[in-house]
Specification:
Blueprint: H1 2-8, H2 22-43, H3 48-75, H4 81-102, H5 109-128, H6 131-135
The chain binds fe (ii) ion (FE2).
């Protein structure tokens, strides 16, 4: 039953993910698509190369989107930018750890990554990033 729910899991874009900034929303749509692709490739056992490329794409997404977010937050005078930047750094460092592990897959790694990304969406995207809406 657990495997079934893992296999059927898929993120869909919803308005609740919007931070009200078009460019960031577009990047976050891409982010959700990458998570879905990563999840699918891992559970299908499509090999470490594909998983590694998707994790690299997640890092590229993070580099681009987080830089944009941080400039945007500064421009609207958002508080706690330092803490927010630390969150972003933590995401990228965690992805790099996962990337290293993807070269030597082990049982449970897909769930470790999905658990992290799900908690990122719930704790950062839906909470911390939403502070744009409050600030602007
Ligand atoms: Fe953020």
């Amino acid at each position: 039953m657990l495997c079934y729910s893992i296999i059927m899991f898929r993120f869909q874009w919803e308005e609740k993910y919007s931070v009200g900034v078009k460019d960031i929303d577009e990047n976050n749509k891409h982010f959700l698509m990458l998570i879905n692709d990563l999840h699918l490739s891992m559970i299908q056992g499509k090999g470490k190369i594909k998983s590694s490329k998707i994790i690299q794409s997640l890092i590229e997404y993070a580099d681009t989107t987080f830089s944009f977010e941080e400039r945007y937050m500064s421009s609207v005078g958002m508080q706690d930018i330092k803490v927010h930047k630390e969150d972003h750094t933590y995401f990228i460092e965690t992805m790099k750890v996962f990337l290293a592990k993807a070269d030597n897959p082990r049982l449970g790694l897909p769930m470790d990554i999905m658990r992290f990304l799900k908690s990122w969406i719930e704790g950062h995207l839906l909470v911390e990033d939403k502070k744009y809406l409050i600030t602007k």
